[in-house]
Design brief:
This protein has 101 residues and is of the alpha+beta class. It has three helices and four strands; from the N terminus they run βααβββα. Strands 1-4-3-2 form a four-stranded mixed beta sheet.
């Protein structure tokens, strides 16, 4: 059974900025970024336990193919929900993320 995915409200701006940056670099690359992230989120919804964690075992991490991005999420088993707390560039300061966790 698939889980419902919910995104932290602060993710949207970073996500839009990444899209715009890739689209500015090459026409269609932003769309490819969006499609790749959405596909990865669909996979997470189907198999949320399939991915590992680094450091904090409450959160799982999965790399986005082709792009240097990680999706960080928490599983809420009772409500069958995956709560995505971050979709961020792998070079981004991870200390910033702790403020939203």
């Amino acid at each position: 059974m698939s889980y419902v995915c919910r995104l932290h409200p602060l993710i949207q701006q970073d996500f839009e900025e990444a899209y715009a940056w890739y689209e500015d670099k090459q026409k269609g690359l932003g769309e490819r970024f969006l499609k790749t992230v959405r596909q990865k989120i669909e996979i997470i919804a189907l198999q949320p336990e399939a991915h590992g964690s680094r450091g904090n075992t409450k959160f799982k991490e999965v790399k986005v193919e082709f792009f240097p991005y990680l999706i960080v999420y928490r599983i809420r088993k009772r409500s069958k929900e995956v709560y995505i707390v971050s979709i961020h560039h792998t070079k981004k300061n991870r200390a910033i993320l702790h403020s939203i966790w």
